[in-house]
Amino acid sequence: MVSGNLFHSRKNSWPTQEYISKSTLHLLDFDDAVPPEQAWRRRLNSHANLLKEFSVTFLEAIKMVKLGIRMWSYVREEASHGRKAPIDPFTRESYKPSASQGVPLGGMGSGSISRGFRGEFRQWQIIPGLCEASPVMANQFSIFISRDGGNKSFASVLAPGQHEGLRSRKKADDQGISSWGWNLNGQHSTYHALFPRAWTVYDGEPDPELKVSCRQISPFIPHNYRESSLPAAVFVYTLVNTGKERAKVSLLFTWANSIGGNSHLTGDHVNVPFIAEDGVSGVLLHHKTAKGNPPVTFAIAACETQNVSVSVLPSFGLSEGSSATAKDMWQKMVQDGQFERENFSSGPSMPSSPGETLCAAVSASAWVEPHGKCTVAFSLAWSSPKVKFSKGSTYHRRYTKFYGASEGAAVDLAHDALTGYKRWEEEIEKWQNPVLKDEKLPEWYKFTLFNELYFLVAGGTIWIDTPLLSSNMGNGQDQSKELEYANVKVTEATVHCRQGADAEFTTDNEYDSTATNGENQVNEQDTGEVSDENESVDTFRIGNSTSTLQPFAMTKQEYEDDVGRFLYLEGVEYVMWCTYDVHFYASFALLELFPRIELNIQRDFAKAVLCEDGRKVKFLAEGNWGIRKVRGAVPHDLGTHDPWHEMNAYNIHDTSQWKDLNPKFVLQVYRDFAATGDMSFGVDVWPAVRTAMEYMDQFDRDNDGLIENDGFPDQTYDTWTVHGVSAYCGCLWLAALQAAAAMALQLGDRDFAETCKRKYLKAKPAFEEKLWNGSYFNYDSGSSSNSKSIQADQLAGQWYTASSGLPSLFDDSKIKSALRKVYDFNVMKVKGGRMGAVNGMHPNGKVDETCMQSREIWTGVTYGVAATMILAGMEEEAFTTAEGIFLAGWSEEGYGYWFQTPEGWTMDGSYRSLIYMRPLSIWGMQYALTLPKAILEAPRVNIMDRIHLSPVNGGFSHNETCVRKISTKGGCFSNSVFHCAC
């Protein structure tokens, strides 16, 4: 816990009044129009500098020549099948990334759209795994102001005109958006971000006598598994007239029928006006996606009230020849401030032709009295009910459970957003206020903590509904959700109790399912679509049976309680779902905010541990061949082109030989089990936990209880070679032995608990003897030039041990000494602590440049190291360490990585892999500051001391276990797991 007033002297506060005048703040002080004191801020005229991507050194390039050749061949092979390789270092987007990002829109898992701090809509991720980075510049808010007497008028797009996506020179005959009034300078306009909300305040721009605040709100609400899945956002404009004359103010929302990139040019798109209940009206934009992807429908809408009048222009184009052009539309708004009411009855537009851009506009107009105030609200929603992966599997998104799968759902989403956003805000403020009002925390930490959550929306997240199998349990809104499963045999692993020498894990409850073409897939009869690529729906083996990682039939109550299945990308450049070695760091955010999602991800990996996929794969680093998924090995990821069916999209190394994945699985499972107290979860995953531990026995080659690395990068640092025992993997292994022993004890598998404890007691002194050098743990036990390097992440296992209520792995003096060494060398010797923790540092104070990853600063690892420091009572060092990521990535003097935090950067600030999963580990810091009650109240008696060793020797062996069959009586442990006598 943070102690006292430690950080009062160094808050790094960004006072609101330094960006907005006090008088304006006073005028806007109602209806949440004023940004909070703790927010990330930028002026709209701030320069969005281009970002600099990292490059390998000459020596690094020489070492990776063979890998590069094989990867080039693989990328081309995937392209020949119309697919994008999960890692493609050769293809660069034509649109250069810049420091212009802002808070993304919508909830989780239904496709995402980001919005830059200067107002542009960008980073389109509607199609799984595809990110269209460039902004669609026709998507804008604009304002038109006229006053009684007609002597003052203003018309401007509410974004500065110096956009990289806008042509710099305006032609006199231009019919497109360059003809609009790009008059805003941005000098007196500011952006304020506190995810999932953002405020843009126009302090007298473009009208000096009108103060305008735009509040962007999305339904990201922790522990709310319904509304947090909704693809919708609201923009609430607060208007204050400081002039002496009444002002007519018209706000305009324009939107192109596009999902980013060149999608607007594909043709056959249609716009339709609509009028809904409660004064909500607008335009539906039906987008027919290319390449067989499911269609998308957008809704842009405004809410008509007693003071606000809404009108629409259902369609206009950007070029001459359109029935109405962008220039015509703009001139109409300048002249009248609104469109004709008859437009609501105009019906569907003509389908757009290929090469033509089809746009729509919604106007909301109000009279604002002198010194009066007015509120105008718009909403944006998009309905993309089906998500289709490139190898054929199609699913319904989570929100369809509540809104159905019809195109008309976009209207309901837009309506409910406009009528429910105030409740969203109440719940968001209730969640955030305890952190924001905690005076012991640095100001930069408060808003960075929340803003790093952008990734759970913008990280390519997919959240699907779990289908209800029983045909007599139909859902009234959407019968199509009664989906069928693939024609495969499913086997659930359970634990059997067998007396005698042959006691072992077996499988039972074999279930034969009948149906179509893949797990959870949309029924062809309902959708009219056929999955034409079934090569991915191959089979995995579980023992002697096969599976495609699918759940069993549920009762209606179970279905209603179920939160579906969730995927998120490693990064927009590393397109792999739920990359597990990285999830190890990021998962604290899900555990804190959406624990049921976190448990379901762990269940997916537990099933995967017990699966085997025998298809051959070529591993690019070594050029050797192996099978895609080995039974007992935790997969690196859940796949790219057909997740859950085709795991391990990563093919640089054979990850079945990685030494960190299995321990990370055991540690995450135990942490989640301990934090949530969910005994049924523990029962579900225990067979996989035990199997994962047994699998690792093969890597203890000298029978000292420790696993050894194999002289290649066999862990998450996948260019950083390891020899012998390593600080990183060895520490994870020690922690996993503790976690497995504790979990085995609590689930009644006492023999296995004894086995793990024996190994731990043998491995711990061997680990310290081989790696402890008096002040820290050496990188590895080999004799290479970097074996004595100081690795920032050397205590990752201790991080999880302390996070799970387990006893420390080492003496406190060793833990603090190692962390102090990391702080003094990896943190403070890198630009005075202003960049984060470099991964590797030689004991002579020089950065370890063995490979590109040893010399990088990894943002998520730095947050993880800071969390470990907090748990060790080193709060000041922890926040100084993490502050380096803020200063380099988020501050105004930094490199511009806000809302696109990369995996890491080099000493000169060059990034690698923007919009990356691992920085969510800042929530590991918050977890450490506010440990769950279950962890704080962990047994005072060391849980390892509760495991009494019998006089039996041996390693992980099936023959020594006698496990109570707990799969049918998980509830018996709910009250007191240590004294259950059932």
TrEMBL record:
<dbReference type="InterPro" id="IPR008928">
    <property type="entry name" value="6-hairpin_glycosidase_sf"/>
</dbReference>
<feature type="domain" description="Glycosyl-hydrolase family 116 N-terminal">
    <location>
        <begin position="102"/>
        <end position="424"/>
    </location>
</feature>
<feature type="region of interest" description="Disordered">
    <location>
        <begin position="506"/>
        <end position="534"/>
    </location>
</feature>
<dbReference type="GO" id="GO:0004348">
    <property type="term" value="F:glucosylceramidase activity"/>
</dbReference>
<dbReference type="InterPro" id="IPR012341">
    <property type="entry name" value="6hp_glycosidase-like_sf"/>
</dbReference>
<dbReference type="GO" id="GO:0016020">
    <property type="term" value="C:membrane"/>
</dbReference>
<dbReference type="InterPro" id="IPR014551">
    <property type="entry name" value="B_Glucosidase_GBA2-typ"/>
</dbReference>
<dbReference type="GO" id="GO:0006680">
    <property type="term" value="P:glucosylceramide catabolic process"/>
</dbReference>
<dbReference type="Pfam" id="PF12215">
    <property type="entry name" value="Glyco_hydr_116N"/>
</dbReference>
<feature type="compositionally biased region" description="Polar residues">
    <location>
        <begin position="512"/>
        <end position="525"/>
    </location>
</feature>
<dbReference type="Pfam" id="PF04685">
    <property type="entry name" value="DUF608"/>
</dbReference>
<dbReference type="InterPro" id="IPR052566">
    <property type="entry name" value="Non-lysos_glucosylceramidase"/>
</dbReference>
<feature type="domain" description="Glycosyl-hydrolase family 116 catalytic region">
    <location>
        <begin position="564"/>
        <end position="925"/>
    </location>
</feature>
<dbReference type="GO" id="GO:0005975">
    <property type="term" value="P:carbohydrate metabolic process"/>
</dbReference>
<dbReference type="InterPro" id="IPR006775">
    <property type="entry name" value="GH116_catalytic"/>
</dbReference>
<protein>
    <recommendedName>
        <fullName>Non-lysosomal glucosylceramidase</fullName>
    </recommendedName>
</protein>
<dbReference type="GO" id="GO:0008422">
    <property type="term" value="F:beta-glucosidase activity"/>
</dbReference>
<dbReference type="InterPro" id="IPR024462">
    <property type="entry name" value="GH116_N"/>
</dbReference>
